Description:
Elements: H1 3-42, H2 51-86
Helix pairs in contact: 1-2
Keywords: Bacterial flagellum, Cell membrane, Cell projection, Cilium, Flagellum, Membrane, Transmembrane, Transmembrane helix
Protein name: Flagellar biosynthetic protein FliQ
Organism: Alsobacter metallidurans
Amino acid sequence: xxxxxxxDVARDGIFTFLKVASPLMLIALAVGVVISLxxxxxxxxxxxxxxxxxxxxxxxxMILLLPFMGDALAGYMTRVASRIATGG
Length: 88
C-alpha cells in the first residue's frame, strides 16, 4: 500500500468516525446547555443533576441512531475489505 492509499483509508476512517460520533455529541451538548440554563434560572447548582438526563437522552438517542451508525461502520468496513481484497 502506498502513502496516498494509506492517507485515503485514514481520511475515510476519520470521516466515518465523525459521521458516527457527531450526532451523539451534538445531542449531549444540547442537553447539557438546556440543563445548565435550567440550573442558572433556578439557582440549583448540583453537579450530578446534569448526568442523569444526559445518560437517559443519550441512551435513547443511541437506540434510535444505532441503524445509522451500524450502516456507516459497515460501509467503512466494506470499503476497507475491498481494498484488502484487491491488494491495495
